[in-house]
Amino acid sequence: MIEMRQLRKTFTVRVKAGRLRREKRLVEAVDGISLSIGRGEMVGYIGPNGAGKSTTLKMLTGVLTPTSGEVSVCGLQPVPQRTRLALRIGVVFGQRSQLWWDLPLRESFRLLRAVYRVPAGEHEARLRRCRDLLDLDGFLDIPVRQLSLGQRMRGELTAALLHGPEVLFLDEPTIGLDVVSKQAVRSFLGELGRTGDVTLVLTTHDLADIERLCHRLVVIDHGRVVHDGTIEQLHSRYGSRRRLVADLDTPLPPGFTLPGTTMAATEADGHRVTFTLESITAGAAVAALVSAAQVRDLSVVEPDIEDVVARLYTDG
Amino acid sequence: MDALDASVPAISPSRPFRASVVTFRALVGSGFRRYATYRQATVAGTFTNIVFGFLRCYVLLAVAAGTAGAMAGGYDARQLATFVWVGQGLLNVVGIWGWADLSERIRTGDIVADLVRPVSPVTAYLAADLGRGAHALLTRVAPPVLVGALFFPMATPSRWQTVPLFAASVLLAVVGSFGCRYLVNATAYWLADARGPLAFWTLGSGVLAGLYFPLRLLPDWLAVTLWVATPLPGLLQTPLDVLIERDPPALQAGLVALQAVWAVIMLALAGWVQRRAERKLVVQGG
Asked: Fewest CB within 10 angstroms: A51, A130, B36, B86, which?
């Protein structure tokens, strides 16, 4: 559905180099990305600010011309065939609006039907589904400029889907949303993904979006792919481990070790200890700890994707 | 589904031309409704137009009164009053000033949303601008013309062909003005901010389109040069000259044809510049 081969985008930036002199400097925003995304896949595309996520998305939607490399979406070349491609993809840029600012949401949807030339029956069916799932009815008649961010984003998602796109590109769709709106957007996208008809590419800084929605995770940094695989593969590759956190009645004796683990932290004067499980099951570690100390409470913490990704970003 | 779609006729993929017309018409409608939202702005703008109408009218009538035969630039007092008051109304229909939507969207990066639509930005903005013009035609023309007619004697057309020619001329003026404004706004693709070119445009277009004074007051060689070499007289002066029958019918028709040529050139230029811009486009912001 989406193919990228050695995709590259270079920007020229002018940098001050003296009182009057300006120097041209080349910035490799996207530096040779090759990816293949199949029909119905849900792919999380993440990376730190300036990693090249949005630039990639803009090249995939035909807005930016690649400096070099090949790209095809739905079998079309995005830049030369942009208007044809536009009929087959949906795009939500979290920080941009594609709705008509001064008009009510209802009017925007009606206009989009005319712009995308959607038959009335299909339009109605899709809109009804979005109205139900995203709970739009309360604000369909309010001008877009007066909508809250959460309401607008639900409108944007609907607008991107009314023409039944094969691929949906979402550039930070949950940015700035409160917990409830984020939840609504996520469960809607999850629902959409379950049908398997829509290929979804999602960029985000909120890793909970990815954990909920995407089986495949692509991490980019400095314009290059640094990870492409499942979240589990990311954890095993970067050695993220489960941790055992225990609250103790009395601190452990000095020099205490729990076989197969490493001591990660000691807090509250030794009353709380954290072990990283290296080569031991959680059960065995718990049994060993309980026999060695007076344990008041304990929990096994799953590896945190945020930590892994933060390490990835800083290492990069 | 309540009457959500009642106003969009059936769209059939097997009839592409009809589908394009439906799309275009819907976009025209969006431009109309957008301006219809701001009623207070319409009232305030109309009031300002009327105030400036009085100023301009008294100045031009004073100029004419000081000349032999009370004619200025070939216009009598009635024609001058009509020129001013219809001009005050048409000013908003043609919309020479105040349109910075495109440059704003380029500056903020929102232009991305326009580029992922299956309609070219020039077409989409033209449609919306025609809608804006239609709204101004219905709301902004009548008040200054009525006020003018109350306070000054005005000229009425005497030839039958003046009315259709005037209608065509106004439409061409809107299209030509759109082309010019699109080009001025599109400088933002290169400059990131089009405020400089827009200020220059506001100053230049007012003088050279015939808003501040009829261009016929200029020496002939200069007036002819402006007409032939620039689209600007076609934005306001030509439709007004047509309405007040400043020239014989054949010359009137010729001026409107010239307007049409310029409208086509400006639209083609806008399309060309847009394509050039897309090739080098750097979208602002993440």
From this structure: B36
pLDDT, tens only, B32-42: 998 888 889 88
Mutate to test the interface with B, among A55, A102, A141 (most CBs of B within 10 A): A102
d(C-alpha B149, C-alpha B46), whole Å: 16
The tally of domains found in chain B comes to 1
B136-185 pLDDT tens trace: 999 999 999 999 999 999 999 999 999 999 999 999 999 999 999 999 99
Assess A201–B contact: CB distance below 8 Å, yes or no: no
Residue B267, pLDDT above cutoff 50: yes
Query: Under a CB-based contact definition with an 8 Å cutoff, are residues B30 and A108 in contact?
Result: no
Domain boundaries, chain A: 2-229, 243-315
Q: With a threshold of 0.85, tell me whether the complex ipTM lies above it.
A: no
The residue type of A249 is: D
Burial class (CB in 10 A: 0-12, 13-18, 19+), B235: buried
A216-221/A261-267 β-pairing: unpaired
Q: Name A208's Cβ contacts closer than 8 Å, sequence gap at least 6.
A: A182, A186
What residues of B are in contact with residue A98 (Cβ under 8 Å)? 113, 116-117
- Whether residue B8 and residue A120 make contact (CB cut-off 8 A), yes or no, is yes
CA distance B264 to chain A (A): 23
Instruction: Tell me whether residues B33 and A63 touch, CB distance under 8 A.
Output: no
CATH of domain A2-229: 3.40.50.300
Burial (0-12, 13-18, 19+ Cβ within 10 Å), B6: exposed
Q: Which of B34, B5, B20, B41 is nearest to B128 (CA)?
A: B34
Q: Which residues of A touch B4 (CB under 8 A)?
A: 106, 109-110, 124, 127
What is the structure's pLDDT at B2? 40
In a domain, B232, yes or no: yes
| B4 domain-assigned | no
Q: Which residue has the tokens 């015939």?
A: B210
Q: Are strands A2-16 and A68-73 parallel, antiparallel or unpaired?
A: antiparallel
For residue A127, which residues of chain B lie inside 8 Å, CB to CB? Answer: 1, 4
A58 vs B contacts (CB less than 8 Å): 112, 283
Bigger pLDDT: B11 vs A24: A24
Q: CA separation (Å) from A246 to A249, A283, A294?
A: 10, 13, 10
Of A115, A120, A143, the CB nearest to B37: A143
Interchain pair A95, B285: CB under 8 A: yes
φ and ψ of B227, to 5 deg: -65, -45
Q: Provide the pairing of β-strand A261-267 with A243-248.
A: unpaired
